[in-house]
Design brief:
With 301 residues, the protein is α/β, with parallel strands linked by helices. It is 29% helix and 28% strand. It binds S-adenosylmethionine. The site of S-adenosylmethionine (SAM) has 25 residues, from strand 6, strand 7, strand 8 and helix 5.
């Protein structure tokens, strides 16, 4: 196992390189469980005393056992409970299996397609991050496709009620999933009244990810907005999630209605609550002041 590509600046420390030379976080590496350059990216999985098992791709922290539920619960239960009747779900990326695990908890979902570009991420996360997928890769509803997400939405004739883009940052293979062409393809793959949600970076550190996504989504969707959650290991403040649908009502649901659906689902979560769901669409003023964001509708407008 080579450390030559690792971001570890010694055998005991992993320095995230997302904001190399400007700002960053490091993790003690108590044990390296896997490290290799896959066909698409550098993959490392290691143990950390505080965060448990940690996975990074191309120098960027992707997920940790300790705080993955913040992100996976918010990017799954917000669109699925807002939609209210989702039968078919498409996950783009998500190789660690955490998003798939949360989608599988919805008994009303009948079919899940997951399109992940890197087979080795799936295989190594199943082996070294087993609590993320927690058996979800064996769910009979799953159709796992190893492919580029952009190619998939370009060519697929399948339709979905909810699309979740759980990709890396727009560097390397993830860049394709922040393009107008990808959003156009997602629109074409959505059933009427469907919802697209996408990880969209930490807005305080990566404001252009939000403004560019808004600009690229608006030609295809009547209602484009964002919602937020602070995920500890996505450093720099609130993680932003893009929201795009032709049904503005889905973002205006009352906490009473979301609560009713949440109770009906039988879900028990560690981060998500109906009040957090509704409140997550309340964007800070500095986000609304970003270029092109003024007309981003706020819940209850
Ligand atoms: N939670 C993380 C975040 O917010 O940055 C994302 C986690 S998940 C590990 C990201 C996944 O996207 C990886 O498994 C990566 O292989 C996959 N991915 C990157 N580019 C892709 C593409 N073009 N098509 C499909 N999957 C892609």
């Amino acid at each position: 196992m080579s450390h030559t590509d690792s971001q570890a600046n010694d055998s005991r420390r992993y320095d995230e390189s997302l904001y190399k030379g400007i700002y960053g976080q490091f993790f003690g590496m108590d044990e390296v469980l896997f490290e290799n350059r896959t066909e698409h990216q550098h993959l490392v999985i290691f143990n950390n005393q505080r965060f448990g098992r940690v996975m990074a791709l191309d120098g960027v922290i992707q997920t940790t056992e300790a705080d993955e539920f913040f992100y996976h619960e918010m990017l799954t239960h917000v669109p699925l409970l807002a939609h209210g009747n989702a039968k078919r779900v498409l996950i783009i990326g998500g190789g660690d299996g955490g998003m798939l695990r949360e989608v599988c908890r919805h008994e009303s979902v009948e079919h899940i397609t997951q399109v992940e570009i890197d087979r080795q991420v799936v295989d190594m996360c199943r082996e070294f991050l087993p609590n993320h997928s927690a058996g979800a890769y064996d769910d009979p509803r799953l159709n796992l496709v190893i492919s580029d997400g952009l190619d998939y939405v370009r060519n697929s004739t399948d339709k979905f009620d909810v699309i979740i883009s759980d990709c890396t940052d727009p560097i390397g293979p993830g860049e394709a999933l922040f393009t107008s062409e990808f959003y156009e393809g997602c629109k074409r793959c959505l059933n009427e009244g469907g919802v697209l949600v996408a990880q969209n970076g930490v807005v305080f550190m990566q404001p252009e990810e939000v403004t560019v996504s808004a600009q690229r989504l608006k030609p295809y969707f009547d209602d484009v907005s964002f919602y937020v959650a602070a995920v500890p290991t996505y450093v720099g403040g609130q993680m932003t999630f893009a929201w795009a649908t032709d049904n503005p009502a889905l973002r205006q649901l009352s906490v009473e209605e979301i609560s009713r659906r949440f109770e009906q689902s039988g879900l028990r979560c560690r981060y998500y609550t109906p009040a957090v769901h509704v409140g997550s669409f309340a964007l800070p003023q500095y986000v609304l002041d970003l270029p092109g964001m003024a007309d981003t509708q706020q819940a209850g407008d």
